[in-house]
Specification:
By secondary structure, this protein is an alpha+beta fold. It has 14 helices and 33 strands. The strands form eight sheets. It has an eight-stranded antiparallel sheet. It has a seven-stranded mixed sheet with strand order 2-3-1-4-5-11-6, with helices on both faces. The chain is globular and about 80 Å long. The two termini are 34 Å apart. One of its GO terms (molecular function) is GTPase activity.
Length: 529
């Protein structure tokens, strides 16, 4: 393939993820996006939701759920003249570390907000993460078929709480039972909503122009007048869309609609595919790598087990940063210094796992992993590069893990270290005793670990409570001071799965005091892979 064809392929790519608070409608909008991308034939096939709540500790159930969400981990589909990669972020709050790392692999985000609720907790946290790289954000105000909050107030809340300017692209006409549709500010047209058509791509009625009397007739005089008045206010009080501010992550275009009713999702997709950036550069320890570099490079941001229950393999998800992947090509696995020939990477076209013959910067490919690949690993065509910015987060929950059968200590340790390399959990070995402490960001991780230890390592383990409330990775430039620190507080020191020194604190107060006492030691809440 010629260089200019490769460049064209790359320029077509748009790689994004959805950020939202649980229940805001991420799953529903994903489904509708796939419907528009013709990756599925009718809505209702992405995830069997059944009666809603599932037993959270039931691993089989979870596996089932994961099994389904796994095939939708990355979804590639064409839309307009772009090729879209939508990366799923785990829905459950508990897997937040994975979510954070997934956000390092995208170039833009769709923020979905429940318009009846406004900005919620988890959205706030995820926005903080996108801020680390100034990721451009497109906003969808969802659930307009319900009674929502005043739209002006919603924009105001986004601006003040998330510190990003809002540029409404569409504006709602009524909500709940009175939801009539939206006025598209850029197209100067009103698109009318019909309820009950959410599972299909609808034929919509469009009315050109704001002063068109057809509008009054279609939505009722009162609502048409209200719309005109609101728009005057909106134009005065909010921002106009600005591509540069959007790309800098300082301004977000805002769309209104209902994912359930499949209304407005296409407006959002039109905007996203037009404005969102093509594959962006990434930083390595050595230099910045741009998508246009002719040599292939990529980094692993996620490892997932049991994608296919018949093959007990693990898939390492790699974001291609530059160049092109072709089947059978040789790649250098930089951390272990080995060159490997990759002939069976998977791509995710149209929601199906398929063997990738080629893929380009911006795409995600899945590598079969038999334990050699770790999160954060870099692959190149020979160059010594190490991508940065793929963090581990200090866990917030801790338990001591113990064997039912004490003879299996070795397998337990091996299992835990491998699971920690995958990012499923973190493990700490205190310097002063033989305990094994498992640390997690979310409580569900504990259950997953015990179930996987049993299934994959044939180890029966159980948890006990442990007096640890927080952990920090510690570093010191001055070897002598670090040494002294290690001697004085050894009772609170441990090695993590990668043998990095960690301070495990029984209380926050203890951590604060220790930090004050040892000003030359750095205490870090994140660790780079
Ligand atoms: P999540 O992935 O962000 O957690 O949200 P999800 O899409 O699962 O949606 C959460 C709930 O909100 C679901 O209802 C879903 O049907 C509903 N929902 C999503 N979009 C809209 C919308 O535009 N309008 C309305 N009225 N509801 C919406 P549920 O009762 O939890 O699930 P289900 O049993 O109805 O499927």
């Amino acid at each position: 393939m010629s260089n200019s064809t490769i460049a064209q392929e790359i320029a077509k790519r748009r790689t994004f993820a959805i950020i939202s608070h649980p229940d805001a409608g991420k799953t529903t909008i994903t489904e509708k996006v796939l419907l528009h991308g013709q990756a599925i034939q009718s809505a209702g096939t992405v995830k069997g939701r059944g009666s809603g709540q599932h037993a959270k500790s039931d691993w089989m159930e979870m596996e089932k759920e994961r099994g389904i969400s796994v095939t939708t981990s990355v979804m590639q589909f064409p839309y307009n003249d772009r090729l879209v990669n939508l990366l799923d972020t785990p829905g459950h709050e508990d897997f937040s570390e994975d979510t954070y790392r997934t956000l390092t692999a995208v170039d833009s985000c769709l923020m979905v907000i429940d318009a009846a609720k406004g900005v919620e907790d988890r959205t706030r946290k995820l926005m903080e993460v996108t801020r680390l790289r100034d990721t451009p954000i497109v906003t969808f105000m969802n659930k307009l078929d319900r009674d929502i909050r005043d739209p002006m107030e919603l924009l105001d809340e986004v601006e003040t709480e998330l510190n990003i300017m809002c540029a409404p692209v569409s504006w709602p006409i009524g909500s709940g039972k009175l939801f009539k549709g939206v006025y598209h500010l850029h197209r100067d047209e009103t698109i009318l909503y019909q309820s009950g058509k959410g599972h299909t791509i609808q034929e919509v009625r469009i009315i050109k122009g704001l002063d068109n009397p057809e509008l009054d007739e279609a939505v009722g005089d009162g609502l048409a007048e209200q719309l005109r008045e609101e728009l005057e206010l909106v134009m005065g009080a909010s921002h106009e869309f600005d591509q540069e501010l959007f790309l800098a992550g300082e301004l977000t275009p805002v769309f209104f609609g209902t994912a359930l009713g499949n209304f407005g999702v296409d407006h959002m997709l039109d905007g996203l595919t037009e404005w969102a950036p093509a594959p962006q550069p990434r930083q390595t320890q050595e230099r910045e790598v741009t998508a246009a570099d002719d040599k292939f490079s990529g980094f692993v941001f996620k490892i997932q087990a049991n994608m296919d229950p018949r093959h007990r393999d693990r898939i390492a998800f790699m974001r291609i940063v530059s160049g092109q992947y072709t089947q059978g090509m040789k790649m250098k696995h930089v951390r272990i210094g080995k060159t490997v020939s990759i002939s069976d990477a998977v791509t995710f076209m149209a929601g199906d796992r398929e063997r990738a013959e080629e893929a380009f910067a911006g795409d995600i490919i899945g590598l079969h992993n038999h334990g050699t690949i770790q999160i954060g690993d870099t692959f190149t065509q020979g160059e010594e590069l190490k991508f940065t910015g793929i963090p581990n987060f200090a866990p917030e929950l801790f338990r001591r893990i113990r064997l039912r059968d004490p003879l299996k200590q070795k397998q337990l340790l091996k299992g835990l270290v491998q699971l920690s390399e995958e990012g499923a959990v973190q493990v700490f070995r205190p310097l002063d005793n033989n305990d094994l402490i498992v640390g997690a960001v979310g409580v569900l991780q504990f259950d997953v670990v015990v179930a996987r230890l049993k299934a994959e390592y044939n180890v029966d383990a159980l948890y006990e409570s442990v007096n640890v409330s927080t952990a920090r990775w510690v570093y010191g430039k001055d070897a002598k001071k670090l040494d002294e620190f290690q001697r004085k507080v050894s009772a609170n020191l441990a090695l993590d799965g990668g043998d990095n020194l960690t301070y495990i604190a029984p209380t926050m107060v203890n951590l604060n005091l220790t930090q004050e006492r040892y000003p030359d030691i750095q205490f870090s809440k994140t660790r780079e892979h």
